């Protein structure tokens, strides 16, 4: 995080803490007064909370690392070169208890080739 992003985040957190303290004081003040119409928070506290959340969010986004481009092809190639041990989808690809379609297709293609060879002779 750069200095500017930390400063913006700190300012937003101080503003958020002040809004929380103001909301607490308002609640305590009007809980003793027994005024049912004034129990809602004032608009300035609500606006202060929203502004504080936006400022904290901006500070965190400014301090985040740059995003790396997604290259699934490189990631998948790296996993295949390692033998597929790190593949997060390995359990989905294995499908225990189901037919191995690729093996069955190869078996069928071999059977057809053998049948054609026998018929041609």
Automatic annotation (TrEMBL):
It comes from the Eukaryota. It is found in: Endomembrane system. Pfam families: MMgT. Residues 1-19 form the signal peptide. InterPro entries: EMC_subunit, MMgT. It is a multi-pass membrane protein. The keyword tRNA processing does not apply. GO terms for biological process: protein folding in endoplasmic reticulum. The chain crosses the membrane at residues 46-64. Keywords: Membrane, Signal, Transmembrane, Transmembrane helix. The keyword Signal applies. GO terms for cellular component: EMC complex. Belongs to the membrane magnesium transporter (TC 1.A.67) family. This is Magnesium transporter. The lineage of its organism: Eukaryota, Fungi, Dikarya, Ascomycota, Pezizomycotina.
């Amino acid at each position: 995080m750069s200095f500017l992003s930390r400063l913006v985040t700190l300012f937003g957190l101080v503003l958020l803490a002040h809004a929380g303290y103001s909301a607490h004081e308002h609640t305590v003040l009007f809980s003793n007064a027994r005024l049912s119409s004034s129990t809602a928070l004032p608009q300035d506290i609500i606006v202060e909370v929203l502004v504080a959340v936006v400022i904290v969010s901006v500070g965190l986004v400014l301090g985040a690392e740059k995003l790396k481009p997604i290259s699934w092809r490189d990631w998948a190639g790296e996993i295949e070169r390692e033998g597929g041990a790190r593949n997060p989808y390995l359990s989905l690809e294995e499908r225990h208890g189901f037919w191995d379609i690729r093996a069955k297709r190869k078996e069928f293609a071999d059977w057809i080739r053998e049948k054609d060879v026998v018929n041609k002779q």
